[in-house]
Design goal:
18 strands; alpha/beta; membrane; 499 residues; 16 helices; FtsK domain-containing protein; Rossmann fold; five-stranded antiparallel β-sheet; FtsK/SpoIIIE/SftA; nucleotide-binding; disordered C terminus; 41% helix; transmembrane helix; eight-stranded mixed β-sheet
Length: 499
């Protein structure tokens, strides 16, 4: 039934261009009725004045001035209502979007025209293609009917709508002969406070109505320069995950995250030296195997269920300043890291093991494509270059209209659907102190897997999950020749700043 009665929204018509004028007239009807009533009461005096009697001139002048003032006050009030509605995202705000789209289509000749003969010659008549608009929850949805002369143009309208409304395209819905673009507008109003952000049922609400379902879209890449809010965003993730599970942290620069090492809950959970980071990744790989074994041997084992079914807490590994670590590795060390990192990223989801990698610039030398593509959620904070956005979100989003705006914590987020959208990371008020908040925790939430021993059979099963194709990817990524060629291409690429 839903397929038969798919609601596209209200159809946009040519007369929508003039609706503001009609609404002003509509709002002025009460004043016009009062003015008409006053003139009706004084019609005898008006007739007398017309016949040349000056006795009521002063009264009629006052009456006329009163009518004019009343009419102007009503018109001013009408414009005030329309303006406030636009500012508050009301009806006239939605009408304005339809009017802007109409203007764009007409100016760019994306309408059909035909000439009609009249008594005075010919008259050009504009015919709009079928397009619809609706507001659905927090999204503005524009639907275009395909198959006409502008078929190709309508399939490329996503970036145009983003630029026109300064919004973010979050979804493109295709149906036979229809394409719907769903945009998220007025993003800053959806910003949450740090105290509101929680992990629940495998999901984190990062902005109002915007969820990262880490159980379904695992692992995250975070990029951003100095002063963009990257560290506070990582602190937010640490806070959220340690409330429900275990967090392991690597900080090769021994800076912002390294200071957590002395807090009670983080004892043994924060590493900074190269060898310690090796061991953290290898221990996390072993933890993944143990968690899979625990699930398989559980009395309520059910095929297809993930870690949450067995009441296991998530296990999150956060590596900040990844480039500072990865760039120091030689060939053998790179192979040692990738040998455990790729299985963690590719296979960790069902066992509840997740990787979060943060760095300033995710180029191929620091983060090979095979890794970057499987970090499904992606976040960029601060001002990035055109190349920086391309490295973070990939070639599929090269036509995305990325706009650099000022403000700490502002950036873009891809929650795993392949469509980046504007992000305002959770607001941290002045009276909120992360170190004080972290000090409230005595320990992480974790299960004891020490009694579980990994056998050769367990490793074989994990190797079966890690296919020969995956092994070829690792070999390709650690190839010095591959790294050299990739870096040469990056060095030749221009790093154009977006203003």
């Amino acid at each position: 039934m839903r397929g038969l009665f798919y609601y596209r929204g209200k159809r946009i018509q040519l007369y929508h261009q003039y609706l503001n004028v009609w609404y002003v007239f509509l709002f002025s009807i009460p004043s016009l009725m009062i003015i008409s009533w006053l003139f009706f009461l004084n019609h005898a005096k008006i007739n007398s004045q017309i016949e040349g009697n000056q006795q009521y001139l002063k009264q009629l002048v006052i009456l006329g001035m009163l009518a004019i003032v009343l009419l102007f006050v009503n018109i001013f009030f009408s414009f005030f209502i329309i303006k406030r509605s636009k500012e508050n995202g009301g009806y006239f705000s939605r009408l304005q979007r339809c009017q802007w789209l109409l203007k764009y289509l007409i100016k760019n000749n994306l309408v059909e025209t035909k000439k009609e003969k009249t008594e005075n010659g010919t008259k050009e008549i504009i015919q709009l293609p079928k397009l619809y608009y609706r507001k659905k929850d927090s999204l503005d949805c524009f639907t275009f009917e395909l198959g006409g002369k502008n078929h190709k143009e309508f399939l490329m309208m996503g970036s145009v709508l983003e630029e026109m409304f300064l919004g973010d395209l979050v979804e493109v819905d295709r149906k036979p002969m229809l394409v719907t673009y769903k945009l998220l507008l007025d993003t800053i109003s959806r910003r949450l406070s740090i105290r509101e952000v929680k992990a629940k049922n495998g999901s984190i609400e990062i902005m109002a109505g915007v969820f990262w379902d880490y159980d379904k879209m695992p692992n995250m890449l975070i990029s951003g320069g100095i002063g963009g809010g990257k560290t506070y965003f990582i602190y937010m993730l640490i806070k959220v995950f340690m409330e429900v599970g275990t967090v392991k942290i690597a900080d090769p620069k021994k800076s912002d995250l390294g200071v957590l090492a002395d807090l009670p809950a983080f004892k043994g959970h924060v590493v900074m030296e190269k060898e310690e980071i090796f061991r953290l990744l290898e221990d996390s790989f072993e933890m993944m195997i143990k968690r899979y074994k625990y699930m398989r041997e559980h009395e309520n084992y059910t095929m297809g269920k993930n870690y949450a079914f067995y009441e296991m807490p998530p296990y999150v590994v956060i590596v900040d300043e990844w480039a500072a670590f990865f760039s120091t590795l030689d060939y053998k060390e790179t192979e040692r890291v990738l040998k455990v990192l790729m299985p963690l990223i590719l296979q960790g989801r069902q066992s509840g093991v997740y990787m979060i990698i943060a760095l300033q610039r995710p180029d191929a030398q620091s983060l090979p494509n095979g890794i970057r593509d499987n970090l499904l959620a992606k976040v960029s904070l601060g001002r990035l270059s055109e190349l920086g956005y391309k490295m973070t979100y990939g070639d599929d989003n090269k036509n995305k209209s990325f706009v650099n705006k000022s403000g700490v914590g502002r950036g873009y987020l891809d929650i795993g659907k392949g469509i980046p959208q504007e992000l305002y990371s959770p607001f941290v008020p002045e009276d909120f102190d992360f170190l004080e908040e972290f000090s409230k925790f005595d320990q992480m939430i974790e299960l004891d897997f020490e009694s579980i021993r990994i056998t050769g059979r367990d490793r074989e099963m994990m190797d079966d999950m890690h296919s020969a194709e995956d092994e070829m990817k690792i070999r390709k990524m650690v190839s010095e020749e591959y790294q050299r060629k990739r870096q040469e291409k990056l060095d030749k690429a221009s790093d154009i700043k977006i203003e």
